[in-house]
Amino acid sequence: MNTQNPSNETHAKIPSTEDTNRYVPLTTNFSSSPSLFIDTKASPHDLQECANIRIQAATDLLESMTCMNISNCCDQDLRRVVNAAYLLLRDGVDLHGINAGEPRRK
Questions:
Q1: Lowest mean pLDDT across 24-28, 69-73, 78-82
Q2: Model pTM score
Q3: Does residue 21 sit within a domain?
Q4: Rounded distance, CA 43 to CA 45, Å?
Q5: Residue 74 lies in a domain
Q6: Which of 12, 18, 44, 61 is most buried, judged by most C-beta within 10 A?
Q7: Mean pLDDT confidence for 47-70
Q8: Count of CB atoms within 10 A of residue 31's CB?
């Protein structure tokens, strides 16, 4: 996964359609200008591994939540955990979609 915005790179040539389609922004870019991208030319193995790591981290986080007592948890803590799990899972799904050649969900 490439974390640099290819639109900010300085180069003399005009990007081809192939270059434009190479970097796909993650769904979880919530700013007006995307800053996190998936390199569609990365090896399928690397995309799969990156997706699996994110999905496993989110699963581990949610499994830890099953051991917690909700009465000891404040609203802000719950929102933080849900947000982290969402980001990890959404990125994992985006990566799996690129790897499988599926169209991206909007």
A1: 69-73
A2: 0.73
A3: yes
A4: 5
A5: yes
A6: 61
A7: 92
A8: 7
